[in-house]
Each structure stands twice: as C-alpha cells, then as structure tokens.
Amino acid sequence: MSYGGDAVGNGVLRCQVPIKNIERELICPICKELFTHPLILPCQHSVCHKCVKELLMLNYDDSFDAGSESSVPGSPRSRVPSPSMERLDRLVRSGSVTPRVTAIPCPGCQHDIDLGERGISMLFRNFTLESIVERYRQAARAAVAIMCNVCKPPNQQEATKSCMDCKASYCNECFKLHHPWGTPKAQHEYVGPTTNFRPKVLMCPEHEMEKVNMYCEVCRRPVCHLCKLGGSHANHKVTSMSSAYKILKEKLAKSIHYLISKEDQVRTQITELDRLISQTEENGQLAEREANEHFERLFETLQERKSEMLRSIEQRFNTFRNHRFLFYQGMLENSGLVGYAQEVLKETDQSCFVQTAKQLHVRIQKATESLKTFHPSADPCFDEFVLDTSKEETLLKEICFGGDPPLIDWSHSRVYNEASICWRLSEDHLPTDHHVLEYRKYDNGVWRATDRVYGSSALVHDLEPDSRYAFRVRSCRNSMFSPYSPEVSFHTPPAPVFNFLFSDKCGFSTERLILNNRRDAVESMAGMAFLLSAERVQSGSYIGLDYIIGDTGISQGRHYWAFKVEPYSYMVKVGVASDTKLAEWFHNPRDTSSPRYDHDSGHDSGSEDACYELSQPFTLITLGMGKLFIPKASSSSSVSNANLSSGDPGNRVLPMPQRLGVCLDYDAHRVYFYDADTMRCLFERQVDCSGTMFPAFGLMGSGKVQLEEMEGRC
User: Fold this and answer.
1) Which stretches make up the Fibronectin type-III domain (predicted)?
2) Quick check: is 237 in a domain?
3) Which end of the chain is less congested by CB atoms within 10 angstroms, N or C?
4) Which of 628, 635, 656, 633 minimizes the C-alpha distance to 643?
C-alpha cells in the first residue's frame, strides 16, 4: 500500500514511497512502539500521551521523595508504592496537589521541556502523525477488515463507513439506521473504514473553546485569536493559518523534491562503492597471496637455517661417538698386546726372547705415547650454537604493515598545564587516515589515548603539576596501525602557568629596548645612547641596566612562567621584583646606577653577601655570554647542586639552559629557577612578597628575551 494523497505542489513530488518503509518514523522514542495519541512537545518532537504522563509522574515521584521521609534509606514509607497515575490526575484536577516538577527531558533532543502549570493540557495532539500511524496499521493488517461497531456477533458485518462525528464504524445497514435522512445525523462527516477518529478542527489548549486560526512564527505553533490579543503570544509575530500552511507545505515539498533529486546521485555512489568493494576484494586477495609468499620464504629460510644447525649439532655428537669407538678399539688392541707381552716374558731362552722382545717393545712404546697425547676430537661445549635472536625477533616484530612510525618532535612540543605534542612523518611515508597519541605518568603504567587526530599535533589537557609524562604516537592507514614512535618524556611545571606579556607602559625605555608587536619578545640594542656614554665608561662610570617587567602582577598563589635568553646576549638579569622595588629602579637615572652596587648583580661585589642575609623584595639571577651565574649561597638560599654552595666561583657558573623557568610561591615567600627542558631546579631563595610581585628583566648591551608561548600550537 502506498502513501495516499495526490502529488504535492503541481508535480513537485512525483515519487511515492511505500508506507511500509517509514516505520522507523512512527516509533515513539520512549516506549519503542507505534505512536498512540502522540503529543507535540515545544521542541517539535512527538511522544505518546501515556509516555509523557509517565515521565511527568516519574519526575513528580523524584521531587516528592527528595523532600520527604520516603527518601531516607530504611524508612518504612520507602516501601509504600507510589500513588497511581489516575490518583495523581485526580488530585491535580481537584487542585489538592500541584506537582513540584513540571519539566521533562525530551527523549529526542535531550532538552528540558517545561510544561508550565497546566502540564500536558498545554500540548497539541499530533493528528497528522496519528493519521499516518493509522494508515500504516491498515497497511500492516492488509486484508484484515474493520468490523461494524453496531452489529453483534455472530452476525457482525464488515464496516463500509466510519463517522467522524460519532467516532464509530458502520456497515451499510447500520449506517442508514443511525443516520436517517432528514435528521441532523445525516449531515455528519463520514469517511472510509478507519479506527483513527479525530476532531474536525484543532482547538487551542489554552482556550479550550477557541479554534486555532493563526500561526506564531516565534513559538512555531498554532494559536487562537485570544492568544494573540492578551495571551502569552501577544507580542509575538503571527501569520494567518492559510499563509503558514502554504509556506510550510512549499518548504516541505521542496525538501522532499531535493531528496528525491539526489536519488540518482546516491545510486551512483552506491555503484561506485560496489566497484570499490569488488576492487578491494581483488586487491585484498592479491595482497594475501603476496603476504603468504613472503612469509613462506621467511619460513623456508628459517627452516633451512634450523636444519643446518641441527646437522652441525648431530655431527658434533657423531665425532664424539667415533672418537670413543676408536679409543675402545685401541683399548682392546692394547689389552691383547699386553697379554702377548706377558707370555713373551715367560720365554727363558735369551736369544729367542731378544729376537721377539725388540719389536714388541717398539709397539708397547707407541701405545704408551698415544695414551700420553690424548686430546678429545671435539669440544663438548655447544656455546657457539646458542643463538642470540633478539635482533631478529625485533626486526620481525617491526615488520610494518601501516607504514613507518611517526617521530615526536621534541623541540616543537611543549608541556605545561596542558601538553602540545607535535610529530613528523618520514619523507616517503604513505598518506595516513589519522593518528592516535597516547600518554601516561611514569609512576602509572596505564596508557591513555586521545581521540583521533587528523593533523600532526594534539593537545592533552588536565595534566598534573610537577609530574613526568611519557608520550608516544602511531599512525593508522586503511585500519592498519604503524608501530609506536619512540617514547618521549616531559616534566610538567611545579605550578600553574602564569600568562603575561611585556609591559610597554611602566618604565619602558624606547631608546634602548625594542618590543615586537606581540609584546612577547624584547631586544636590547647597543645604540646611540651606549656610544654617547663611552667617555663616562672610561672615566669610571657604568652603563646601567634597562629594566622591563610583565604587564600582570602576582598577589597570591603559585605561578610558573618560562622564557628563552638568546645565547649571544651580553648580560640579562631575570627574576621577580615587587612594585616598591620597581619604583626605585625606574626612578634612578640609568647612567649613574652601577651594577656593582646592585645587590643581585651577579658580580662578586661583596655588598650582595650582606644583603642575602635578609629577605629582599626582589630576586634576579644573571645570564650572559652563554652562561648562567648562581648568586652566592647563604642561610636564606639553597641550591639544588651541593657543589654550587662552595666558595669556588667556578662552581657557580653553569651553561645557559635553552629555556629557563621561574616559579614564584607568593604565599611561601620563595622563588625558584628551573631548567625548563628538564625541570631541574637550579637555584631557590626567599623573597619578600609584601606587595605585588612582577616578572622582572634587566638587559645591558646586546641581548634578547623571548617569552614562552604557554598555550602554543604546532
């Protein structure tokens, strides 16, 4: 049976889909059965009337239990069954009780639907869907007839008409009997036999006596004129029902026409898929044969080597057996010779004895010499046959079906609160479908995998601070995975990332310092001001540091940031400083402030030894000429390497790390300096955090500082 009705939109819809093919559209998402009196939710999804009541009842029970004794475990009331749905409806209608919860989750889109105070009565019945379900039921029943509701068995007749006003089906005789000519019933609307009866017109759920004759474009639902005049749709844009009918019908017809017009394209794609499947089967069989041939050759080679080794071992056994046989045979010969010699000794005639004994003595001497020079014919140890096949096993395991493994690019990967891991493929790699990145903590052997990655980098979120993680990646092509890349480990910072840029407002020297547009890199140039100060340098004055700070301060918590100092830099000082110290720095003239009298200048001035005994509102360490200079240790400071605390200045000079990290623990009044690549603490000390602390940098001569992009992408 085909979907009834004429073509839509003057021939727009020509193809009719058999109604049996639309069953999936007629199933309630809750009860998984054909719709029964479906209601339209505000989100335009339909649900059976009984299913909506059950959802509302369930939410009512949850709300009732949450605030009553019945929700307490072990309470006697918890075993009392909840009130029936009929009782609940009765209580609601009588006004004795109002459900506390009127919101239900839509099973189609999972959005919460608030039914308001009137609950289910606010929802429209989906009469169109009811009609389609009824036509589907009739098609499913096929030849099963609808019987007359008036005739009584056993003389019950098949119905020929159904009255939409009486909501009953009749045979011809009963219809004439109950709808006689000249009576009001003769004017009733009748249709073919059906079990689906619905009102002639759609009534407004808010105003039960009013027909819906308009369409609210805001709420996308039919409304009556009272809804428009003073109801909830008073300020909404509405249109006439005929106009909405025409517009929506044209849109639906065009959409259906578009789907039907794509049928040929879909069929072409299916044909192409069939061709690809056939081609895949042929290529798969060929690949299977070639794989069998390759592995058979490997098996044959291994079998040949195995046979050669077993033959060599067997030859060693045979050598010992032959040697033993020869010795045993010689022993028998010597035994006869000894017996013969003993008989010769019994000879008393001297001439006869001498005649025989001379030759016998030569034979006995030869036998004696052979016993003295005994050597085994072979080595009983089989060490040369003990094979180390670990390399071969590794090669066999690395037989790659999915291409060469990718390699994690350590230099472009960064790990902070989250990890940005980059990798690269070999130049001759085949195209890949996707990649999978896996990671784990070193003290936890469980690997966790990201979702499929279609680029050459991935982000891993929610990493624990001050922890070491291992990462590996592999590629997938045609459902075949490559081997894993070699593992690469990173250490997360000891504190959350502190993001800031260089400040171009507070004390920034435009004469000597150059900021890039992003304000994440600052460069010091030995320019005109430096040259003009040359005479003062010769006369004993010094060129001061040009300071620059971060644009964000710290007043609590633990924070970490990282940066890179270019190796060619002459002198760069990095660390933290309070707002009070910054005012002093930026107030002093730069051409008179000597680094010799800067407490933490990195020079052995002697004054810094005294100042280290007290907590200062700043801490700076010196980098330059490819070196990092650790300040002298004291009771208030500590260094990770015990050798650095000695008085030998050579022990206080380290190679400059590629990246340096700073961690400020404001609450503990402590600052730490790290090698940002290995997260090894190079130096720590106490600092006075009485005010707002800022990341601070000082540059003298040529130099450059590049802030790390904490949330970088490859």
Assistant:
1) 405-495
2) no
3) N
4) 633
* 508-512, 644-648, 706-710: segment of lowest average pLDDT: 644-648
CA distance 212 to 205: 9
**Which whole number is the average pLDDT over 576-583?**
88
What is the number of domains present in the chain? 4
Residue 281 CA to its chain's centroid (Å): 33
Domain that holds residue 359: 243-373
SS3 of residue 698 by DSSP: strand
Residue 187: is its pLDDT beyond 50? yes
**What mean pLDDT is reported for the chain?**
75
Residue 570 corresponds to which amino acid? Y
**β-strand pairing of 488-491 with 457-460:** unpaired
Domain with residue 412: its CATH number is: 2.60.40.10
User: Are the CB atoms for 691 and 548 separated by under 8 Å?
Assistant: no
Residues with Cβ within 8 Å of residue 275, at least 6 apart in sequence: none
Alpha-carbon torsion (363, 364, 370, 372), positive or negative: negative
Choice between 335 and 29, residue whose per-residue pLDDT is larger: 29
In sequence order, which residues have a C-beta less than 8 Å from that of residue 91 and are 6 or more positions away? 83, 97
Q: Would you state the structure tokens that stand for residue 231, as one six-digit string?
A: 């109801």
Q: Indicate which CATH number applies to the domain containing 577.
A: 2.60.120.920
d(Cα 166, Cα 92) in Å, to the nearest integer? Answer: 30
pLDDT of residue 88: 42
Residue 663: predicted pLDDT? 94
